[in-house]
Every structure is written in structure tokens, then in C-alpha cells.
Amino acid sequence: MKKLFFAGLLALIGTGAVAQTSQGNISLGGSLSIYSASNDQTNSESKQTGFSISPSAGYFIKDGLELGLNSRLLFYTSTYKQINSDSGNKFNTFSYSIGPYLTKYISITEKLHLTATGGFGYENSRTKRPDEAEELYSSASGFYASAAPGLTYFATSKLGFSVSMGYIGYSKSTQTYHDSEPKQETVSEDFGLNFSPASASIGIRYYINR
């Protein structure tokens, strides 16, 4: 009887992670990332610092396959300065994006899963000059597509911790400069590939079994 009890308990523990990614379940979560980069050239230097938060909600359309809606809020400050000069330019940027995503969970162990996430959506940003009474310097809007690998660890039957490890992506946007008359517009396309440690983000998800 005791052997049967412990066998049943181990079976429940072992299927916990599987139950979290079962068809019909719901997941709620988000991630936080901090960004810092600098670029020193012969006559100038630049620096960017900021952070982003990314809330999301998903539904498992089949076992191990999650379809959801992802959003991102990004805040960062950019400074540009000439070498041997006390003056420079400073900009504050706020941007947001929203769009659907699809995540595949691949089991490594009972609690650890490899994930592959792909998505696309709309993004918008506004850049201001804090030294000039928050005057609007530029604005931009466009579309993006991206994919990222990651890991998810199921700590409990309802709680999972995830790490996103870099990304590959494409974006196209139209940027308007408001400090010129008439206003100038430029269209830009960008293909990005970044798997450095600085691109990693940590997230937490809550799973609702149905």
C-alpha cells in the first residue's frame, strides 16, 4: 500500500510540468530587461541606458504549444558628446509594441523546458529633449517580426521562471523629425541578430489549469 502511494505521488510530481503546458491552459506573465551600451569613436562618444517590461497572456491551443498576445514598454536615455567638449545632446525615448506570439515548449527534464518563441506586431516610439522642456524631437511607427530561444523552469504546479537568450528579428519603420521645418521623414529597415549576455531577459509566468 505504501509503495502504491509513493508511486502515485511520484507520478503526480513527474506530470506537473506536463500539466502546465496541456491544451486548454492559460498563462499570464511578463519579463524585465535592463539595457546599457556605449560606443566610443575618435571624435565622439555615445551611451544608452534603459529598461523594458513585457507583460503577456497566452492560451495553449495544443499540448506544448502556446498562442498569446505580447506587449512591451521601453524607456531609455541616449547621450551624445564630442570628445574634449562639455556640451552634448541628451534624448529620452518611450516606445511600446504589441502583437501575437507562438511558443513551443520542448521538454528537457520533468521541470525544465526549452522554448522557441516567434511573433510579430506593431511598434511606436517618441523621443524628446529633456534639456529643452521635453520638446518632441522625433516619432516613429512600424512593424516587427522576431524569434528567440529560451528556457522555462517550472518551480511549482502553477509558477514558471523563464529566461530569453537573445533574438533574431526584422523591423521596418517610418521616422518623423519634428525639429525641422518642413518635417523630415525617413523609412528604415533593420535586421538584427544578438545573442550576447546583455540581450538576455528574465520572466515569470503563472499557469492556470483548466
Automatic annotation (TrEMBL):
Pfam families: OMP_b-brl (PF13505)
Domain Outer membrane protein beta-barrel: 7-195
Keyword terms: Signal
Organism: Pontibacter aydingkolensis
Protein name: Outer membrane beta-barrel protein
Signal peptide range: 1-19
InterPro entries to which the protein is assigned, alphabetical: Beta-barrel_OMP, OMP/PagP_B-barrel
